[in-house]
Specification:
The complex is a heterodimer.
Chain A lengths: L1 H7 L10 E9 L9 E9 L5 H12 L18 E4 L2 E4 L14 E4 L6 E3 L2 E2 L2 H9 L18 H5 L18 H5 L6 H11 L7 H8 L13 H5 L6 H14 L3
Parallel strand pairs in A: 1-5
Antiparallel strand pairs in A: 1-2, 3-4, 3-5, 6-7
Helix pairs in contact in A: 3-6, 6-7, 6-9
Chain B lengths: L1 H29 L1 H9 L4 H29 L7 H28 L2
Classes of the chains: A alpha+beta, B mainly alpha.
Chain lengths: 251, 110
């Protein structure tokens, strides 16, 4: 069947239209620069290209020194969160044609974490907060088979299981920008994932950790995190549920 | 985020007014004459416009405060936060539309 389709096709390769996108990237090389600087690049891209493809093109064809993180390039690993046109997004999930092309596209590193080079930030403070909420199953029972859970019990924390730890939420939070000690939305989301898991027994421990001055009460419900999440997690809702659990003293 | 920024700005503005207001009111214990003189300045157009700004600030802070309470304590509040913000803005405009003409007539009228 595939040969039949091939026969019908003309031999001339179809011309896929391209367009020029202007990217203005905030560059910083700690060995040379004292301050970050903006540099613009013109890239020829396809309508199917994402910001990540444009960054690749720049790195491979124009300036090999451009530094950014990416791994899977398909919105799963959470490596390439960056600030694109003032909004935190994943470069691999942002189609260039969906952006406002009448203006250049501004690309910079996520805010609130120490800038290392170009689009790369030091993620250590972010992962320290993540570790601090004990994001693993705490259970004393050792069942012979699986730990049973009803559909309703599973649905209770389904939303927060989707987190890929890209830091788009935490680095979009104005509270986190000014107070780096704040646990941040991502850590609370991952605490929520276990606090409301019926198989887990460590809810009270995590609620005590988050009942801290730098815990959930720092949240001012600006909803930046919910808007930024590339996985569509209702982050502010999860934080609100943790607040409620602390107030009521029960999950 | 802008709902929060506006809430902060109006909150800080109201705080500074309250500080001044407590000071001018406490003057009455020191000397009623000084109190009358200070309160008399509230009749000037600048203070009249200041009062208008104060009502505008308090109006937003109060309405958005109710929205924040609903976000915190209503189980689906976070889901309707945007809709609630638009409602806050509409009520705020209605409030200003009701108060501003009266106040301006009072300040600049005969």
């Amino acid at each position: 069947m595939s040969t039949a389709i091939l026969d019908n096709k003309p031999n001339v390769p179809e011309v896929i239209p391209t367009f020029t996108a202007t990217l203005i990237i905030r560059r910083f090389d700690p060995d040379v620069d004292d301050e970050p600087r903006w540099q613009d690049f013109d890239v020829e891209v396809y309508p199917t290209d994402r910001i990540l493809d444009a960054l690749h093109k720049i790195k491979w064809e124009q300036d090999g020194s451009l530094t950014f993180r990416r791994s899977c390039a398909h919105g799963v690993c959470g490596s390439d969160a960056m600030r694109i046109n003032g909004r935190n997004r994943l470069a691999c999930k942002t189609l260039i044609k969906d952006l406002d092309l009448s203006k250049p596209i501004y690309v910079e590193a996520i805010k609130g974490l120490p800038l290392e080079k170009d689009l790369v930030v030091n993620m250590d403070p972010f992962f320290e907060s993540f570790k601090a909420v004990q994001p693993f199953l705490i259970a004393s029972s050792k069942p012979d088979k699986e730990r049973l859970q009803s559909v309703t019990q599973r649905a209770r924390f389904d939303d927060t299981t989707k987190c890929i730890l890209c830091a788009a939420c935490t680095s979009s939070c104005p509270v986190f920008w000014t107070d780096g000690q704040y646990f941040g939305p991502a850590a609370i989301v991952n605490a929520h994932r276990f606090i409301f898991d019926s198989r887990d027994e460590g809810a009270q421990v995590r609620l005590d950790i988050l009942n801290d001055k730098e815990g959930v009460w720092r949240c001012r419900t600006t909803f930046n995190c919910t808007d930024a999440c590339p996985r569509g997690i209702e982050v502010t809702k999860a934080i609100a549920e943790v607040k409620q659990a602390i107030i009521r003293g029960k999950v | 985020m802008w709902s929060w920024v506006l809430h902060r700005i109006t909150g800080v503005a109201i705080y500074f007014f309250l500080l001044v207001h407590i000071l001018d009111t406490s003057l009455v214990r020191l000397s009623p004459e000084a109190y009358n003189a200070v309160i008399g300045t509230y009749k000037t157009p600048i203070m009249g416009l200041g009062e208008l700004a104060l009502v505008i600030a308090i109006g937003y802070h109060a309405l958005n405060g109710l929205r924040i309470i609903l976000i915190d304590f209503w189980s689906v509040g976070t889901r309707y936060q945007k809709l609630m913000w638009y409602i806050v803005l509409i009520l705020w405009v209605i409030l200003i539309a009701g108060f501003a003409p009266r106040q301006l007539m009072h300040v600049f009228g005969s």
